[in-house]
Design brief:
single chain, mainly alpha, Multidrug-efflux Transporter Regulator, Chain: A, Domain 2, Globin-like, 2 domains, three-stranded antiparallel β-sheet, globular
Length: 242
């Protein structure tokens, strides 16, 4: 048996990642020590290695979970969907490269403004996955009951852009800085107002996904390198506060 720290070191991941995998049921510890610490045996480590292999290919955690739990999983269909996601990620990486080039030249970054086309593409790519992962939750039902008009969706998305841009402007600032913490509260309120009731527990899970899921990281870092990490760190501080 290995402790969570030993397992993380052997497999080249962070302890936070293992905790996240445990929380979502992807890689559960084999047992708990008398003190309540996670322990991993050879079988758990083998499953973890499989997960990391598919993560290296860029598969979303939800797809990996389905592959490991369902022998009849349609891998070819998943690969086709995954290819579309990779093409979208490539476009975002190109945007990040342009951002780096712009920053090196000392030029002003062109503001990012979500369009209706962006919203429609995101729905096409992620709607089915989101429904499968969260369709049973009250938050999902609340979000769908809002039935926002296209204009309301666009307004909400562009308000989110402004919040992300504000976080990007704070990269390099401590996550517990009052101004950064105020942005976390603003983001939580935005989610609650436009999507679903966002408790601290839900917000904490989102913060973990911002750095655990490459798609979230790429999306947020379009506003400035390090945006996703700052948001994740700041959300953790916010959710741990009384």
């Amino acid at each position: 048996m290995m402790s969570v720290g030993e397992a993380a070191k052997v497999c080249g991941v962070s302890v936070r990642t293992l905790r996240h995998y445990d929380a979502i049921g992807l890689v559960k510890p084999s047992a708990l020590s008398e003190a309540g610490y996670r322990l991993y045996d050879a079988a758990a480590l083998a499953r973890l290695q499989t997960v990391l292999f598919y993560r290296e290919l860029g598969f979303p955690l939800a797809d990996i979970g389905r592959m490991l739990s369902n022998p009849g999983f349609d891998l070819n269909a998943s690969l086709r969907d995954h290819r579309r996601v990779l093409l979208m990620q490539r476009r975002r990486l190109d945007e990040l490269i342009d951002l780096v080039d712009t920053t090196m030249k000392g030029e002003t970054m062109k503001p990012i403004k979500t369009t209706q086309v962006d919203i429609d593409k995101a729905k096409e790519l992620y709607a089915a996955e989101a429904k499968e992962r969260w369709g049973h939750t009250p938050e999902w039902q609340a979000a769908n009951s809002k039935n926002l008009s296209p204009q309301a969706e666009l307004t909400a998305a562009q308000e989110a852009d402004a919040i992300f841009a504000a976080f990007a402007g704070k990269v390099g600032t401590s996550p517990d800085d009052p101004a950064v913490q105020a942005l976390v509260k603003q983001w939580q309120d935005h989610i609650s107002a436009h999507h679903y009731p966002c408790s601290k527990q839900i917000l904490a899970s989102l913060g973990e996904m911002y750095v655990a899921d490459d798609r979230f990281t790429a999306t947020l870092d379009r506003f400035g390198l390090g945006t996703a990490q700052l948001m994740s760190d700041a959300i953790r501080v916010y959710c741990q506060s009384k």
